[in-house]
Amino acid sequence: MSIRVYHNPDFLNYATTLIISNPAQVELNRLYLAAVVATDDPETAYRQTQHLDQDWYDLPGVITVVRSRSTSVGDVLALPEGRLLVVTSYGFEPLPGVTLPPDASALIGVLKTVIQRLAAEPEGSLADLLPDLETAVTQVRVLYTALTFIVPILDYLTAHVDNFDEEACRQALMARFGREQAAWALALASKPGG
Fold this sequence. Notes:
With 194 residues, the protein is α+β, with helices and mostly antiparallel strands.
């Protein structure tokens, strides 16, 4: 069991009162995956992604995707069963009825269908699953190609951060986070049995 910790690049813009009154205002498509924490307890995932006695990305039980700041108000925890919680100043608020953009993708839909069918009839014929699996393989190939293409571009942007104005520096920081996520995803996809 693990909790995925998504950081919000706009966390400084979130007024605590707005998050308390309307946690659904979090823009899910702006989140970046910062860590995967080996727990099913939100409090533990939050605590394990705080810079306290040491940097959180050096802690055991934490898979670092992006070396980022501590988890804060406006960030989102994705629980193992799929529920989403937004971090508020007093704890966590559920985000009912919403999913992260990747979880709503056609690729995830195909893979979930295959898994459900295999679970329902484990001794059944796999031949009828081949079209779905071929679709998933094609989609993964496209994503892998896109990530491979974007990493050098993001490398360039982050290497030239000194030549940018303040807004461009923020964009370069997001490019660095995007590059770290892409590199992590490529490494994970390249591992046998990954």
